[in-house]
Amino acid sequence: MADRKKYKSDAFEAIHTNVAAMYRIGTIDEATMRSFDESCLVDPSSQERANASESQPLRGSLK
Length: 63
Hints:
With 63 residues, the chain is mainly α. The protein has one domain.
């Protein structure tokens, strides 16, 4: 199963979807597409750090 992209918001999903279509038809280059990826998509490593920091207080309260 393919990994589903996670967007920062519904608005970023709409923007990224349109820009990806532009990339596929060749109106923007790869560097521009990468820039939109960075702006619109959630970074998996930052999401893991956020999840870990959210669970930290819970772990401490269980002691």
